[in-house]
Structures are given as C-alpha cells and as structure tokens.
Amino acid sequence: MRGVIVNNYGLHSHTAIKGVVEKNQGVDIAAEPGAEVRAVFEGEVSQVLLNQWTNKVVLLRHGNYLTLYSNLASVIVKEGSDVTLDNLGEQM
Fold first, then answer.
1. How far is CA 58 from the centre of its chain?
2. What percent of the chain has pLDDT over 70?
3. Taking CA 28 as the corner, what is the angle to CA 27 and CA 33, rounded to the nearest 5 degrees?
4. For a Cys-Cys bond, which of 18, 23, 51, 56 suits 72, CB 3.0-4.6 Å?
5. 86 within 8 A of 38, measured Cβ to Cβ
6. CA gap 90, 88 in Å, rounded
7. pTM reported for the whole predicted model
C-alpha cells in the first residue's frame, strides 16, 4: 500500500480556521485505514504516546531530525528501540 502526501512543507492556510496560517516543518503522508506504517529512515524510538486527538503516536529520532507517526491503531515498538525500515504499527 502506498501513502498519499496530504500536506507539504512550508506555510499553508489552516484547513478549518479561516485566516490562520500554519507552518509545516515536514511532509504529511496519509494511508488507508489498516495500512502498515513504515519508517522513512532508520532511527531510535524517542517516545510512544497516547493522545486524545491523534490516537497512538511514535516519535522517531534520526540523528538531529525527528519524525512523528500519528493516528496509529497499534504500535509494535518501544521507547529506546532501534528501528529499521520495518513497520511501526498500523494506521487507523
């Protein structure tokens, strides 16, 4: 399954709040419900969180960079785990 870029890097108008501009520091990729989530780069799991708005979240550190994976139905990694390009969990 492939993901679809739904938000690019840079400044964008907020989708729900008129007149508000957001700065996206990365690229947002969406996938179909149930799709396996894969790391874009190898790294170490900094945090695994549960958030009321985005369900389960994995924060992955790649040296000086961070990648946030959110809206996950399940997570199979733990904090401190080294991650290869294998899956992190399942998207809702």
1. 7
2. 91
3. 150
4. 56
5. yes
6. 7
7. 0.72
Structure tokens at 42: 């190898």
pLDDT digits (tens, 9 = 90+) for 18-34: 999 989 888 888 888 88
Q: In which residue are the tokens 């964008």 written?
A: 12
Q: In the prediction, which pLDDT does 90 show?
A: 52
First to last CA, the chain: 14
| Range 43-59 burial, b when 16+ CB lie within 10 A, else e | bebeebeeeeeebbbbb
Length of the chain: 92
> Of the candidates 25, 91, 33, 16, which has an alpha carbon nearest to the alpha carbon of residue 58?
91
Reported in sequence order, the residue ranges of 1-92 that DSSP labels E, i.e. its strands, are 4-7, 10-13, 21-24, 28-30, 36-38, 43-51, 55-62, 65-75, 82-83, 87-91
Answer yes or no: are the C-beta atoms of 49 and 60 closer than 8 Å.
Answer: no
